[in-house]
Amino acid sequence: MTGYLIRRLIYGVFVLIGVNVLTFALFFFVNTPDDMARAQLGAKRVTPEAVEKWKQERGYHKPLFLNEKLSGIQRVTDTVFFDKSVRLFAFEFGSSDQGRNIGYDISTRMWPSLAVQLPAFLIGLLVYISFALLMAFFRATALDFWGVVLCVLMMSVSALFYIIGGQFLFGKLWNLVPISGYNGGFDAIKFLALPVLIGVVSGIGGNARWYRTIFLEEISKDYVRTARAKGLSEARVLFRHVLQNAMIPILTGVVVVIPLLFMGALITESFFGIPGLGSYTIDAISQQDFAIVRVMVFLGSVLYVIGLIMTDLSYTLVDPRVRFS
To answer: Which fold has domain 109-318?
Structure first.
């Protein structure tokens, strides 16, 4: 187990290095610091002097990989790659192209994102699995048929429809909750209720249908027929055996959501005016603040690697047959 964990951590480090180098190449080879300066300064103020001043203020004036003017270790450390990419591994995010402290912004904005995404994730998981189990329990009946039809219909509707429709119905027509905005403390509940509800409802179609497929696949296996032959009730077979053996594919799918818990939902936070990491990323893209975008890409890859390792380790808890050497 220890050896497996160490190997996974080493693989994760190499993945992060690859993502970091690829991201750096995309930003600084395709879009050079001069291009960034011109995009930020605008057409009326683009002069060679203004471009150079912009690069000096933000540390983009250094060589990309190797500073031949210096000697020793400074040839490598006094470069754009070291300042903008290598320092990310120490979680030194530096400043944005607008001059803001990225680390401070992330530490303050991650909590609104978690406040939205964590309840939506936990409640949604409970709703999706329960609905899928219900359809699997009443498989080949009218409830199962119309449940699948409902899932397909909900899958076919854009997430924007749920957001705009929810804002109009609950916020404008019934005046139950604010349409947008955010406050800390207990006041946050009235601002988070609608985004959480929409987050759960918009995911029912795809997730419930997927979990139903997993449960039906498990139901057709030999151990289920053996359990039925021993006289176990259908409910006990489904909830005790099928659900437990279906946890591995469920956990594998859950890992995809883990980065969103911290980084927020881009569209949801933007439409509801929630100052989380999702809206932070959207604002950075619209303002062409490449420093923030690079940091968010790196954080997303870190969270994915951590999630994959946690998922692999959790296999041993839900299925004793899984053993790592």
So the answer is: MetI-like fold (1.10.3720)
